[in-house]
Amino acid sequence: MERKHIIRAVCVSIFLVALTVLMSGLVTGGHLIYRDAKRGDLAPLSREDIKYLNVESPEATSKDGTVNANDWSAVYPEIVLTWRDNEKNSYVTDYLEQDPYLVNIYEGYGFARDYGSARGHEYCLTDVHKTQRPHPKANCLTCKTPNFAKLVNDQGVGVYSMPFEEVEAQMEESVSCYTCHGNEAGNGGLRVVTHSYVNKALGNNVNSIDPSTLACGQCHIEYYFTPEDSETMMPYHDVTGMSPDAILAYYDAMGFKDWVQESTGTPMLKTQHPEMETFLQGKHAALLNCADCHMPMDMADNGTVYHSHTLVSPLDSPVLLSTCTTCHGDTDMTKLVRGIQERVTARETEVGNKLSEFKDALASAVSEGKKSESDLDALRKLHREAQWYFDYCYVENSEGAHNSELSMRCLDTSEAKIDEGMAMLAA
User: How far apart are CA 194 and CA 206, in angstroms?
Assistant: First the structure.
């Protein structure tokens, strides 16, 4: 048994090295397979195409006794079983309870009423249904279910403006194999962009992003709803436009706001969850992709080597942590990353409380009427920008692990704008 485990570990290590070399572009043609997926020509999705996770019968067969090629559990039984394990990620942190200042800075917006940490992908539909944040339109379902992607692919962007309740009643499953791999189970694991707004925003620039990153980045991004038709959209057209500064400039140029805060009059922005953008602006993006760090390689008893689809923090996976030694040597990676996260979290708390104080001071200045409109507009600009940079770090779910330099820079920028605003108010 010990010999078997050694052989398995060696095989997995060899596969990991080969995969890392391929995905980092060190071998010519690293993206050719992805291009062959024809992302822009995705056909409408049928109910049979979406069928997956037949865990009760992993050897699913058709009436004539042959394996159903469109049954993901029949083609990739190990992967489907590990995907189902994401149900174990069911714990939710109430951010409003953890960080009470959020209620104040999000005043007038849904996140002041309900803001909890994301759970496993299996819970996407459940959680969007029960949230206390209002969702008048169907666009809130964009990344919650492949059924919504089918509606958009079939009927166009008008789906985004349909009533939430009407469309939700048609949704049958949460994030699935289709979301990242398209219609055909037997496609060899090709990654497919199934959300039309990604192709619309990036065009040919999708080829500049590692497919295993973009598959996750379809949803783990900053996005907005277009004013004209409520379509989900990305606020950039290439990787260079993914910095928080460039995205803020994009929104400013189009005069976009998520809401106007009543007490301050500030046209506010609510950052979503810019994991892909933050990662791609960092130094690890040249060598790694999302799967490298969150989907460990494993080997089935029959010798099949596969990516586990139980999405984990690399700190919780010895297999993933072992790959860090390539660059980091014998560094205690858990201690290193935990240290980064603790520093970023402490800084978030410090800046978040200062932002809350600035918001209250600005609200008082507005109600007292002692500042000119031009002064108030200047203060509101600082307020909008301070909250944008703070939020960009706070809602990015790695707590600095994806790009600690950018996280700290955002918090420093936010604090600088807060200090500038408080100085103006005191003058």
Answer: 13
Token pair of 149, please? 């992607």
The gap from C-alpha 330 to its chain's centroid, in whole angstroms, comes to 30
401-413, pLDDT tens digit by residue?
A: 999 999 999 999 9
CA distance 388 to 365: 21
Q: What is the per-residue pLDDT across 236-273, written as a single tens digit (0 to 9) for each?
A: 999 999 999 999 999 999 999 999 999 999 999 999 99
Polymer length of the chain: 427
Which residues, including other chains, have CB under 8 Å from residue 237's CB and lie 6 or more apart?
201, 202, 203, 205
Sign of torsion over alpha carbons 339, 341, 346, 351: positive
Question: How many CB atoms sit inside 10 A of residue 292's CB?
Answer: 23
d(CA 382, CA 358): 10
The helix/strand/coil state of 346 is: helix
pLDDT digits (tens, 9 = 90+) for 312-371: 999 999 999 998 988 999 999 999 999 999 999 999 999 999 999 999 999 999 999 989
How is residue 243 annotated by DSSP?
A: S
68 confidence band (pLDDT: 50, 70, 90)? low
C-alpha 7/C-alpha 202 separation (Å) is 43
What is the CA 70 to chain-centroid distance, rounded?
A: 27
Report how far residue 309's alpha carbon sits from residue 189's, in angstroms, rounded to the nearest whole number. 12
Residue corresponding to tokens 């990620």: 89
Q: Model pTM?
A: 0.85
Cross-strand partners of 61: 67
Please list the alpha-helical segments (H only) found in 203-296: 211-217, 244-254, 275-280, 290-294
Other CB atoms within 10 Å distance of the CB of residue 3: 7
Question: Please, are residues 37 and 183 in contact by the beta-carbon 8 Å criterion?
Answer: no
Please state, in angstroms and as integers, the Cα–Cα distance from residue 287 to each residue in 7, 13, 137, 334, 399, following that order. 27, 17, 39, 20, 21
